[in-house]
Amino acid sequence: MPSIDLNSDLGESFGAWRMGDDAALFGIVSSANVACGFHAGDGTTMLASARLAAQHGVTVGAHPSYRDLAGFGRRAMDVDPDELHAEVLYQVSALQGVARVAGVEVRYLKPHGALYNRIAVDEGQADAVARVAADTGLPILGPPGSAIERAAEERGVRFVREGFADRAYLADGSLAPRSRQGSVLHDPAAVAARAVRMVTEGVVETLDGGTLGLGIESLCLHGDTAGAVDLARATRNALEQAGVDIRSFA
């Protein structure tokens, strides 16, 4: 029986600002990428997320970002690699401490937003993140065939290939920019069918109508996408009906 990890970016509220329906999504996914405070998430939110993970048996991953609360971590930034290493380590360590209180462990690392996109192509930024993974003994979740995959290999860090069910791909394997029409997918049936094909056939249709081989171990559905709960529920149901076992990779 094929298996796949189903992950989502969660714990992305901050103070009085609410993001997503974490209570519902924690009951659907197998892994949660929990925001660590630099793009979203605060101490209260991190602790609540860790407790929800414990309640639902969901694996916790650290979801660090550039220091960009105002831009939700989606603005490109130039950060010195040593500074980036320290700032990502700071975020991961904060979540590790909070998770410990809730009785769970942080089991992997997945950067957020602009940082995720940058380490796919920037060797220096990728190595800074891979150093954090090596320092903490955590696997890295990231895009196949990327600079971060190569950096993880060089640092002796386990790399877990990730795909996105609710985002459009370009022919080169990168995600279509959010500014481009059709870059974010909202139809539950279409997203679910796409997810099944990604897992069972190992391919995804690109925005230009071609196909792209992925070979993924984890599948992401964004918690901040409109209708995220419906997308996640439809995707999980379709995968299970296709005989796919949903379980964490960690």
Describe the structure.
The structure is a single chain. The protein has 250 residues and is α/β, with parallel strands linked by helices. It has one domain (3-246): TIM Barrel (Alpha-Beta Barrel). Helix content is 39%, strand content 17%. Strands 1, 2, 3, 4, 5, 6, 9 and 10 form an eight-stranded parallel β-sheet that branches. The protein has a two-stranded antiparallel sheet with strand order 7-8. The protein starts with a strand and ends with a strand. The model has no long low-confidence stretch (mean pLDDT 95).
Q: What is the CATH homology-level superfamily?
A: Glycoside hydrolase/deacetylase
Radius of gyration: 17 Å
Taking the sheet with the most strands, its summary is:
8 strands, parallel
Number of helices: 8
Low-confidence stretches: none
Helix content range: 25-40%
CATH topology: TIM Barrel
Count of DSSP E strands?
A: 10
Cα(first) to Cα(last) distance is: 18 Å
Bin the strand percentage: 15-25%
Write a concise keyword list for the protein shown above.
250 residues, alpha/beta, TIM Barrel, 8-stranded parallel β-sheet, two-stranded antiparallel sheet, 8 helices, 10 strands, globular
Please write out the topology.
Elements (H helix, E strand, L loop, with lengths): L2 E8 L11 H4 L5 E5 L7 H14 L2 E5 L17 H22 L3 E4 L3 H7 L3 H14 L3 E3 L4 H9 L3 E6 L23 H13 L2 E3 L5 E3 L4 E3 L7 H14 L3 E2 L4
Parallel strand pairs: 1-2, 1-9, 1-10, 2-3, 3-4, 5-6, 6-9
Antiparallel strand pairs: 7-8
